[in-house]
Write a structure and sequence with these properties.
With about 190 residues, the chain is mainly alpha-helical. The chain is about 55% helix and about 5% strand. The strands form 2 sheets. It has a two-stranded antiparallel ribbon. A two-stranded antiparallel sheet has the order 3-4. The longest helix has about 30 residues. The N and C termini lie far apart (about 60 Å). About 15% of the residues are buried.
Amino acid sequence: MLLGLSTGHSVGLALVAGTFIAFALVSALVVPRRWPQFPGQQLGWFIAATLVLFVGTLAAVEVFAKESEEPQAAEAVKEKTGTGPGTTTQVQPPAAIGDPAVGERLFAAQGCGGCHAFSAAGTSATIGPNLDEVLKGKSAKFVRESIVDPNKEIAKGYPPNVMPQDFGQKLSANEIGDLVAFLTKKPPHP
């Protein structure tokens, strides 16, 4: 279990979870057949072992869930402004990862144009905010969040709960990435 928590690899998570599952199966299926009186006097040890494996599995999930966020932060690009003393460094968020062409098809297939005006898609609906205006200068992270949790920040003048709340469940991570790439794609300069 400690190996799984310290390796920093998803293999470690699989080992920790596999150990807990094996323990549960053995204690539920094998041990009662061989020792019908189990756990009997060993109840305290059995509960302690169960709790240690359970907490270890939860800790491993927590450790490995944070690991997936770190590469995105490492991809951030630093931009220097000015020279000499007083130079500032601004960290730019990573660009949207996805295929804008696939995102454009998803925009149409999911009916986004029925509610939103967006010049890149050739839509002019007014049920939801005009995406050309509300997404101008916004990061890919903001756009992604607006898709999967649309009530977190609502555009001025629009009520909550108008946009469907289930795009985070309906669309895969790749599809959301494609949609974000389409929505954050900069139009070509004339």
